[in-house]
Amino acid sequence: MKIRKIMANMKGIPFKVFIMVLTAGIIGIIGVVLLKYDIEKLSQSYREIIEEHNVNRSYMEEISQKLYQHRSIIAAHVASENENDYKTFEEEEAQLRKELEQLLARFRERMTGNEREQMYHKVYSDYYSYVQNVEVTLQLSREGSTETAVFYLTGQMSDFLESVNANLSGLEQLTRKEMDAAKQKMNSYIRFSRISTVVCIVMISVTMLVCLIYCVTITSHLNLYKKNLEEEVRQKNLSLSRHNEKMLSLQDNIITGMANLIESRDGDTGEHIKRTSFYVGLLARALQKKGLHNDILTDAYIELLVKAAPMHDIGKIAVPDHILQKPGRLTPEEFETIKQHACEGGKIVREVLGSIEEKEYVEIASDVAAYHHEKWDGSGYNQGLAGEDIPLSARIMAVADVFDALVSKRCYKEAMPMEEAFDEIERSAGTHFDPRLAEVFLDLRDEITEFLSSTDVSE
Asked: Facing residues of 429 across strands?
């Protein structure tokens, strides 16, 4: 009786096993199919987030670039005293502002969601405040209130421009957080899919080899898909890196353009900037080679110093044209006015470049602009610094600036012969110049003479 009962029960085992295996196989297949669908949907979403991030970043970079171009036009307007130039600059300003409005309008359409919309409104609010200050600055410039216009340009406008960039950075960080969250979720799904795949293989492998192959294939495809996504992200980051390099190059060109604009106001064509930058680099590298000031003169420092040299006379933006271009001797009052360009230059560098350039460059450029008229014996201006209290960058700039001024033709003087200019540098060692720097500069006579022989110093 017992055996019959056992046998009867055993008859149902194959069917029960079949039902269990079939159920496991169906559940496994459905699970894998659903998982594959979810991962594909999540991957598509992640791709869309990456693409959205890149497009938004492109918008933000273009907005930032056009804003700096716009401020450069306003700066040129303030620097000019020519009515014809006013009209040209105002037409360029109006066109660029129209482009900015259109760009911001298109960008606003992409800023959906409460947090994004709030941050966008902050960006637009700061932009609107910036534009209001632009109108005030242009009006002051037209009326000839140059100093007040410069105050608005380097103060209020710079503050709102910096705030716009800060909020744009906040938008970018928000997008990055969304992208990182999506990536983490996708990685979580991928890890879960691997575990699920193993479970499915265990469940299905008893009777469903095809299902096993299918699950293994899905896992392989997921890994491949992840690699493809990572490669895509790497390529996008590489592209963004190249774009950043282009932006830095554009930024350097804008800075050089500002310096050339200032130099052109006192009759120079920009060659003074090129020549003094050459002397600065030549002298700094010679000092480094001789082991002098090696605690300061690193390769990176010299590169920044050469880049900062064009900024030395940027303070002349605050000096009226009738003084800069005066062909005769300046009156004491006029000389006092022109002396202010040094401290004004240091202030302008800190306020205008402080938010867009690295800290070390701003410090070097500020020192060069503020102290290049100080003298070794303390008789210079504006601070009356003496000896090594004068920053090394400004001492190097002083030698380069004075030498080029001596050998160059100006509206108020003829060019001095090179030999006489070298003699003057030698005579002024220990009074005007750091004697050690002057000595090394004189040792470079051949290189400087060769350079000047290929340069027109009459401009």
From this structure: 433
Give the predicted TM-score (pTM) of the model.
0.48
Query: Tokens 């997921």 belong to which residue?
Result: 222
End-to-end CA distance of the chain: 123
Measuring CA to CA, which residue among 46, 40, 37, 36 is closest to residue 180? Answer: 46
Contact 78, 153 (CB under 8 A): yes
Task: Please name which of 387, 390, 422 lies closest in space to residue 404, comparing C-alpha atoms.
Answer: 422
Residue reference for tokens 């303390």? 378
pLDDT at residue 250 is higher than 50:
no
Q: Write out the DSSP string of 304-366.
A: HHHHHGGGTTGGGGGS-HHHHT-SSPPPHHHHHHHHTHHHHHHHHHHHHHTTTS-HHHHHHHH
For 24-77, write each residue's pLDDT tens digit.
Answer: 667 767 766 666 666 677 667 767 777 877 887 888 888 888 888 888 888 888
Q: If DSSP codes are grouped into helix, strand and coil, which group holds residue 410? A: strand
Contact between 391 and 367 under an 8 Å Cβ cutoff? The reply is yes
pLDDT, tens digit, 9 for 90 and up, residues 88-132 = 888 888 898 898 889 888 888 888 778 878 888 888 888 888 888
Over the range 408-427, which residues count as b (16 or more CB within 10 Å of their CB) and which as e? beeeeeeebebeebbeebee
74, 93 contact by CB (below 8 A): yes
Q: Phi, psi (5° rounding) for residue 429?
A: -65, 130
Peptide bond into 382 cis (omega under 30): yes
Please tell me the distance from the alpha carbon of residue 433 to that of residue 442, in angstroms, as a whole number. Answer: 12
Distance CA 297, CA 305 (A): 9
Number of helices and strands (H, E) in the chain?
17, 0
Considering only residues 153 and 418, tell me which one the structure prediction assigns the higher pLDDT: 418
Percent of the chain with pLDDT over 90: 27
Pick the closest to residue 391 from 290, 296, 266, 315 (CA basis): 296
Q: DSSP string spanning 305-322?
A: HHHHGGGTTGGGGGS-HH
DSSP state of 31: H
